[in-house]
Design a protein that fits this description.
This protein is of the alpha/beta class. The protein has one domain: Rossmann fold (3-Layer(aba) Sandwich), CATH 3.40.50. The protein is built from twelve helices and nine strands. The protein has helices at residues 15-18, 26-33, 43-52, 60-74, 78-81, 96-106, 123-130, 145-155, 174-177, 181-186, 204-217, 255-269; strands at 114-117, 138-142, 164-167, 192-195, 229-237, 241-245, 248-252, 272-279, 294-304. The strands form two sheets. It has a seven-stranded mixed sheet, with helices on both faces. Strands 6-7 form a two-stranded antiparallel sheet. The longest helix has 15 residues, at 60-74. The radius of gyration is 18 Å and the shape is globular. It starts with 14 loop residues before the first helix and ends with a strand. One of its GO terms (molecular function) is transferase activity. It comes from Xylaria flabelliformis. Belongs to the class I-like SAM-binding methyltransferase superfamily.
Length: 306
Amino acid sequence: MASITDAVQTDKWGKDTERQLNAGDLESWRKQMYLDTIPWEHDRFRELLEKYSKIPRDEVTAEIFKIRDKAWEIAKYPCIGHFTYVRLLEFDGTSSGMQRAIERLKAPGSQDTFLELGGFMCQTIRQLAFEGVDSARLYGTDLHAEFIELGYQQFRDRETLKATFVAGDMLIPEADYASSEMAQAFNGKISIMHAANFFHLFSWESQLVICERIVRFFRGGFNAESPALLFGVQVGSLKPGEIRVGSFNVFLHDETTFQSLWDEIGRKTGTAWKVSMHAITTAPPKPNAYNEDARTMRYVISQVAC
């Protein structure tokens, strides 16, 4: 079966493309996207640093800022400048995807595996390990190996965490991707995946390529009791479609368009998927690099019988 990447033309989401985020106006971008205070409630993240990482309470805030500033120098994402990652939104008790993931990962004799896509410092993996999930069944990936290294610096667990991390680009050409470390590490090995603040960075065509590769990451076959599961949060839109961000185009979804994308993936891969997605805010996200129709949305995608 031909890969989607054989037919779709997509810009490589490499570090050169990433620099287009600010559309060449770094000063203006910094004013909008870089904060000197943490605007969110982040007690859960503080607890993680105090109890999991053993950082003294009076040093936690300084450590958060120090690592954030190092990350900003690597890539100037809004979620870094605005400390969005410290919210650990998936652990607020309202994420059905995370609840299902934790139940499966902590079940007696569980063989489920969990992959964090575009994980930044893979803070979700650290929270799962803190909550008692066997870290040997946790995997993380990001475009930047530097972010993975910052994760070890932030959480001080280089010698104790058993998780597997692989840096790589989800959009490199198929000939390179098939033999990549990422493909070797994940293909056919994952049962649960999490991707936060991820899909809204890409065009429809790029999302097709990424999602086809996600399907390859999942274990083969269909298990009705423990189906392949992908969940997270992303910026969607009340008026879905392609918009311009910085110097490139991205596609923001509502539930209908996200289901359409996964229907296309299903046709190409011989699989079937059910998407549920809803807005968790009534106003545009902060920071808002998109438009007034943008909303923060939570999604769950489950494999279903063909």
